[in-house]
Amino acid sequence: MAKRRLPRAVFDYIDGGAGAEITLRENSRIFEDVTFRPRNAVASSTCRLQTTVLGTTLELPFLLAPVGSSRLSFPRGECVAAREAGAAGTAYTLSTLSGCKLEDVRAASSGPVWYQLYLVGGREAATASIQRARVAGFSALVVTIDTAVAGNRERDVRSGTKELVSGQFWKMLPHVPQLVVRPGWLAGFLLDGGLMEFPNVVLPGKGPMKYAEVEPALAQSTVTWQDLRWIRKVWSGPIVVKGVLTAQDARRAVDEGAAAVLVSNHGGRQLDGVAPSLRALPEVVAAVGGRAEVLMDGGIRRGSDVVKALCLGARAVLVGRAYAYGLGAAGGPGVARAIEILRADLVRTLALLGCDDVAALDRSYVDCPAHWPAASLAVTKHIDSQRNREERPQRSSQAAT
């Protein structure tokens, strides 16, 4: 439905991934490798879906992930999605690269709202947006660490996305027909303000960042572990580190004060060929060792996918495309329908598993390929031995001193 309503460039932005889209496909396919171990002959009158994430009780074990430029999909897209998340009793995560002011998005939702942070625009612009988020009432800061540069999104090249946002008529002209053949979308887009800027990235002396400025800005705004230190001074609430795929990064994130780590490969939109999120999840869970909460996103399309991720150690999952399609198809009712599809399938899966509470889910409810735990353990041992080798010369030097 979203594909029929949206211009090709907008739909491909939601639907596509980086490079050959190997990781994009594997994110969803990998769930086929995990099979259920049900407890049959068990009667469950109700299934409890409540969970607690960062101290907040949610009615569902899934949150809405940050999806940039949601205003392209539907007028006031971020506000619309946040409102539906709140109505469903779960949290919404706002992207830095959104078309709606963060204050408006916070006001639109009756539930918790998180702010996802890029450092585009530099430290001064980022600090200002963090302070605005704190004052507005956002409850967590999600720091994304996997965007050293923008991924090679070939669909965007074929769709003419760069040309369409350039503001230069002759560059835009060859790609304009895809907009004209979607008159309903085009009317809503123009009435909502047309070609967007990012009101939450205010550049000193220039004002809000323009859409065309994002790609070069990302290349100049890589988040480092050192950045987490000044971010913690500006933001007093919990920090979620997003983009963790290895035990090494998971431990470093927790050491730097993360309250939660988010196992994520950016929906297959950054480095193509990395592990699908579900495959990386057990390694990260083992590395964190209960010192922080573990969340996951990537490839979630069914309620049964949510259940498998919870069984493998995720506290909750974030869904992106699953609701972005609904937003693009029908706005608020589309998002509500996407949430309901996931919720209903989640309840059905729990009942058929013989489990009446998501809090009771664990590894005993699933079978994984035999090499998964062994591989994770081997990697963890390798990192431990590497760390010991790195620390040994330091200790010897200190002893000599």
Could you describe the 3D structure shown?
- By secondary structure, the chain is an alpha/beta fold.
- The protein folds into two domains: 2-367, TIM Barrel (Alpha-Beta Barrel); 371-401.
- Helices cover 47% and strands 14% of the residues.
- The protein contains 19 helices and 14 strands.
- The chain has an eight-stranded parallel sheet. It has a two-stranded antiparallel sheet with strand order 1-14.
- Strand 5 (92-95), helix 5 and strand 6 form a beta-alpha-beta unit.
- The chain is globular and about 65 Å long.
In short:
The protein is of the alpha/beta class and 401 residues long. It is built from 19 helices and 14 strands. It has helices at residues 2-5, 8-15, 22-29, 77-88, 102-108, 122-136, 154-159, 161-164, 169-172, 177-180, 183-191, 214-219, 225-234, 247-255, 277-288, 303-311, 321-330, 332-353, 371-400, and strands at residues 35-36, 51-53, 56-58, 62-64, 92-95, 113-117, 140-144, 197-203, 207-210, 239-244, 260-263, 293-297, 316-319, 366-367.
List keywords for this structure.
47% helix, TIM Barrel, 19 helices, two-stranded antiparallel sheet, disordered C terminus, globular, alpha/beta, eight-stranded parallel beta sheet, 401 residues, 14 strands
